[in-house]
Design goal:
Order of helices and strands of chain B: HEHEHEHHHEEHHEHHHHHEHEEHHEHEHH
Radius of gyration of chain A: 23 Å
CATH architecture of the largest domain in chain B: 3-Layer(aba) Sandwich
Radius of gyration of chain B: 22 Å
Strand content of chain A: under 5%
Strand content of chain B: 5-15%
Structural class of chain B: alpha/beta
Largest interface: A-C, 82 and 87 residues
CATH superfamily of the largest domain in chain A: MetI-like
Structural class of chain A: mainly alpha
Number of strands of chain B: 11
CATH topology of the largest domain in chain A: MetI-like fold
Oligomer: heterotrimer
CATH class of the largest domain in chain B: Alpha Beta
Order of helices and strands of chain A: HHHHHHHHHHHHH
Number of domains of chain A: 2
Largest sheet of chain A: none
Helix content of chain A: over 70%
Largest sheet of chain B: 7 strands, mixed
Distance between the termini of chain A: 24 Å
Distance between the termini of chain B: 23 Å
Chains: A mainly alpha (285), B alpha/beta (426), C mainly alpha (306)
CATH class of the largest domain in chain A: Mainly Alpha
Number of strands of chain A: 0
Chain lengths: 285, 426, 306
């Protein structure tokens, strides 16, 4: 749009952007620095500060050694649990969401607008209203205290977002394409497989990134519907925090936070460009 | 069709009918499923040690600590109960024990308690909480006082003071002396909800334990509107004014460095603060612990006690596990071990704290408890959910925390608000 | 029956059978999703009319839970805060996202790095965001202390402990967390503005400001709606962030409906009261969404007639 040159306005733009970028990085910096300080130092000085001695050992402790009651295996087993829940739930909810989005935007059927409306209203339903009903459902399905139960919860709840994203992407696909294919005799699956799916990667990436992040960082259901060794990593992080009679282990806690945040950070680092691209391609309406 | 009364009947009857097996059935290996919130720190260490003792006696220990605080633990307990799978044993305390016992069946521990002679060595106010409906269903394990006075040695030096204040008047005078001597903020308390609750209950109980009993524990309307409550609010206002305004809603532990350095003078905290100070790297020489201020000269003890409740299970190995656990919890040796790890004092009044492994602060707390019980001034802490159920406690702490953070609220207005809150939450 | 007609019937039946899996895969997920939402909402509404405390029980107490809830200071403050926070946050996050997108669209070097920097907060959990910002915004250890230490001793940034301003600290942290998403959407929108429109405007001699005002921003309207919807969802359901940042304080000054629901349902063991608060929340939501849906419906009918 504008040619790159060294005009004063461009210098101003670089300056402003750098300032804002620095502001955005500050919280990350604080956590990283804290992860390299000792708990005593943090307790005796302040939450924000430069390490006096570098506690590199915090990461090893966080990964494999710190104790939750009698189990001293660090954060490692809980990372696995989080993966076992996040990955299947993300994949399934994305796939189902894309089929559903296709069905309501392109294939069309009687009542599609209504059911789409209800499904997407679901994004507004707060967690607290779902906690006890899910308790009852999981009990009736015999899935209390299982990772499968968590996958079920996140998949069904995720449908609201995934359908929303996919449908808004698919309505940009011209109806004539679908109509022509139908006239040619293609059915529901054929059209999805041959026409819609090949056009989908951008929005699928967006949906996967969004779902994975939300499920990985989720805390409430993870704590209530699993126990002990099965808990996801978010629960393990909270377990590091203060009990009544102790000082928080802020150094190791910050290291654990960094380790736990690594998967989602990496997802955004590498998927970021596709994120924007995915939202560009369809002109999300 | 009121499910509560039907359930209560069932729970009560079931409780009466279950005879706990004094000697576990031959050949059944005791097993125990436990839920608590004690996943880390000294609490986590203590319950882990208890688990080891359980296993030493031949049992299988299955403890699931729930990360977070009490609400998360109760959510988990609720989910398990609703799923029909309560743990054999769970952490619970205060009037919540009575409330929860109405929604699921509990085990009648009367025979075990009688056999161990436990009731004789438990403070009566405390025992009452664990026998709703007249039968023992839960066992207290450790006691904390929530109104201990911590004094910074260096701040005392700055104030050129050498007497530990006993009444609120002396406390206030000391605070002024500290301020004059260069202590920036005489009070080092934090701003969390329990902390704000502690300030009020320490003030009221110190001014008049009788008014505390009537107003806070019995919710008597006249007492709640009485002059002692107003005076307590006035005292809390003074305390708030002597605090660092930047404290906001933070935990008191962020103030510890300045407390030890003499930049802050005093703290009204639970006995657990000693452990926190030591774990942060400070020394016993840096501070003094004393009972909280009491206007009539005799110590007032605000009780906070953790306990285990036992839920009815049909499995014989779990029942055997419950018997073993109950015996362990009442055992003075176990209580000694537990309290030495967490920094609390044992529930049993007959434990001798003069030996090694006990700190001066613990000895002083135990002595204060003895004297307070003798003078009938051992009361239940509101801020730590011992005096009222959670709903009522939270409604009252709403008033306290707003009052502390908003200087425009006068003690008269606060008294009115407290009354309204209590009425609204009944 | 003649053979042709029988064949016709059989083909119809086979056809319907063949379409069964397709029918299932369209309807089953959608029904599960819609079904569970309706069921959970209805369940919550039912509980709000019972005397439930620790666990759900049946019984009928009329509107008692609603009147009790609306009489509490917690709810009144939460309601006011929702309006304040909702409008402030959505507005600020849209403006920030748009601003960042426009900046990034200027073909500057290092766009990839910058985009990652603005997007990474989305990857962080709300609890961590709330906790870290509670340190940064605390006047004693965070930004105010830093600026004071640099010499500007009269600088004050103590919103976190100020009952009136504390809600804005939540806005700041929330904008930090989610403006990256708004930015991504706006950037996508900016990049897909019809090139012909831009060229036409350039030929007409429009300068950059005019270009934005007349051509580009209007074209961004549909995306803006999506951004607003997603941010509105965040504002209404946000819970972990507020709990970690202010805990609802100072005092109860930053209570929000989602916190009140959790507090009453679970912390206070007053299930029915909390459920009443949740239903009130849904009503507020409907009050915002229904007019919008009606407006869209009217728009569609107008464009259908035009």
């Amino acid at each position: 749009m504008r040619e790159a040159s060294f005009t004063p306005s461009r210098v101003l733009i670089y300056f402003v952007v750098s300032l804002i970028a620095a502001a955005y990085l500050v919280p990350l910096l604080v956590v990283v620095l804290n992860s390299l300080r000792t708990a005593e130092e943090i307790a005796q000085t302040s939450m924000i500060g430069w390490p006096k001695q570098w506690a590199w050992g915090n990461y090893a402790i966080a990964w494999g050694e710190f104790c939750i009651a009698q189990t001293c295996a660090g954060i490692r087993p809980y990372m696995l649990n989080s993966a076992l829940v996040s990955i299947p739930a993300t994949i399934i909810s994305t796939l189902l969401g894309s089929v559903a989005g296709y069905a309501v935007s392109l294939w069309r059927f009687p009542g599609d607008r209504w059911i789409y409306g209800v499904v997407t209203l679901g994004i507004f339903l707060p967690q607290q209203m779902r906690l006890l009903p899910w308790t009852i459902v999981l009990r009736d399905l015999n899935l209390t205290n299982t990772l499968t139960g968590l996958v079920l919860i996140h998949t069904i709840q995720g449908l609201s977002f995934t359908t929303l994203f996919c449908r808004n992407y698919y309505i940009a696909i011209p109806q004539e394409l679908i109509r022509a294919a139908r006239i040619d005799g293609a059915g529901f699956y054929r059209i999805f497989w041959r026409i819609v799916l090949p056009l989908s990667p951008p929005i699928l990436i967006v949906t996967v990134i969004w779902q994975f992040t939300h499920i990985w960082n989720e805390f409430l259901y993870g704590v209530t519907f699993t126990s002990g060794q099965q808990q996801p990593v978010t629960a393990a992080l909270i377990a590091l925090s203060a009990s009544v009679a102790d000082i928080p282990q802020h150094g190791v806690q910050s290291a654990a936070v960094m380790i736990a945040a690594l998967p989602t950070l990496l997802v955004y680092l590498f998927g970021g460009r596709y994120f924007v691209r995915g939202l560009t391609a369809g002109a999300v309406k | 069709m009121n499910k509560i009364s039907r359930r209560a009947m069932l729970a009560g009857t079931a409780g009466l009918m279950t005879a706990p097996r004094l000697s576990s059935a031959q050949g059944v290996k005791p097993r125990l499923t436990v839920i608590s919130q004690w996943s880390a720190g000294s609490d986590g260490a203590a319950i882990t040690a208890l688990g080891k003792k359980f296993e030493e006696k031949g049992g299988t220990w299955q403890h699931s600590p729930v990360p977070g605080f009490t609400t998360e633990m109760m959510n988990k307990l609720r989910a398990q109960i609703m799923a029909g799978d309560p743990p054999a044993c769970s952490q619970l305390k205060g009037p919540e024990i009575a409330a929860w016992s109405k929604i699921a069946a509990t085990v009648n521990l009367d025979a075990l308690v009688a056999a161990a002679g436990y009731e004789k060595v438990v403070a009566p106010d405390l025992a009452r909480l664990h026998k709703p409906g007249g039968k023992w269903i839960s066992l207290p394990l450790q006691i904390y006082s929530t109104n201990m006075l911590f004094l910074s040695k260096r701040a005392m030096d700055k104030a050129k003071a050498d007497r530990i204040p006993v009444t609120w008047a002396e406390f206030n005078a000391l605070a002024e002396k500290m301020k004059a001597g260069g202590v920036t903020y005489p009070i080092a308390n934090g701003g969390t909800r329990p902390d704000d609750g502690q300030k009020f209950e320490a003030a009221l109980a110190g001014i008049s334990p009788a008014a505390y009993r009537a107003g806070i524990m019995a919710l008597d309307e006249k007492a709640l509107k009485g002059p002692e409550v107003k005076a307590a609010f006035a005292q809390v206002r003074s305390i708030a004014d002597w605090m660092d305004p930047n404290t906001a809603a933070q935990h008191y532990s962020i103030n510890l460095p300045r407390f030890v350095a003499g930049d802050m003078g005093m703290m009204i905290q639970g006995g657990w603060a000693q452990g926190v100070l030591l774990n942060a790297g400070f020394k016993l020489d840096d501070f003094i612990i004393a009972p909280g201020p009491s206007d009539n000269g005799k110590p007032v003890f605000l009780l906070n006690a953790d306990a285990f409740i036992f839920w009815q299970r049909k499995e014989p190995d779990l029942q055997a596990g419950q018997t073993l656990m109950a015996e362990l919890v009442m055992d003075p040796v176990i209580q000694t071990m537990y309290s030495q790890i967490t920094g609390s004092i044992p529930v049993r009044t007959d434990v001798d704290l003069s030996g090694a492994g006990w700190s001066d602060g613990q000895r002083r707390t135990a002595a204060a408890l003895k004297e307070a019980v003798a003078a009938n001034q051992a009361v239940l802490s509101l801020a730590h959910n011992m005096a009222q159920e959670n709903g009522m406690t939270a409604a009252m702490i709403d008033v306290f925390t707003e009052y502390v953070k908003n200087k425009a609220i006068t003690p008269d207005q606060a008294v009115a608000r407290l009354s309204n809150a209590v009425e609204g939450a009944r | 029956m003649p053979a042709a007609a029988r064949n016709g019937q059989r083909r119809l039946a086979l056809d319907q059978l063949r379409r069964l899996p397709e029918f299932l895969i369209i309807w089953v997920p959608l029904l599960l999703s819609a079904g569970h939402l309706i069921a959970f909402a209805l369940w919550t509404i039912w509980v709000s009319f019972t005397p439930s405390t620790l666990v759900p029980v049946s019984g009928w107490v009329g509107l008692r839970n609603y009147t009790a809830m609306m009489a509490t200071r917690n709810w009144q403050i939460a309601f006011d805060n929702l309006l304040l926070f909702g409008c402030g946050f959505v507005l600020l996050s849209v403006l920030t996202g748009l601003g960042l997108a426009i900046l990034l669209d200027q073909r500057i070097r290092g766009e990839n790095v910058l985009r990652s920097i603005f997007l990474y907060p989305l990857a962080v959990s709300f609890v961590v965001t709330g906790t870290v910002w509670s340190w940064l915004l605390n006047p004693g250890i965070g930004i105010q202390k830093l600026v004071n230490g640099l010499g500007w001793t009269s600088f004050r940034f103590d919103w976190l402990i100020d009952r009136e301003m504390a809600i804005w600290t939540i806005v700041i942290a929330a904008v930090w967390q989610s403006s990256g998403f708004a930015m991504a959407l706006f950037l996508a929108g900016l990049r897909s503005v019809d090139a012909d429109l831009i060229k036409a405007a350039q030929i007409d001699g429009a300068g950059p400001v005019r270009m934005y005002r007349r051509v580009i921003l209007p074209a961004l309207w549909p995306i803006t709606v999506t951004v607003v919807v997603i941010q509105l969802q965040f504002a209404i359901t946000t819970f972990d962030l507020v709990r970690a940042l202010t805990g609802g304080g100072p005092g109860i000054a930053t209570q929000l409906p989602a916190l009140v629901v959790y507090d009453f349902m679970f912390q206070r063991g007053l299930l029915a009261r909390g459920a009443a608060a949740a239903v009130l929340m849904l009503l507020i939501l409907l009050a915002v969404l229904l007019p919008y849906a009606a407006w869209r419906y009217l728009q569609r009918r107008q464009s259908a007639h035009a």
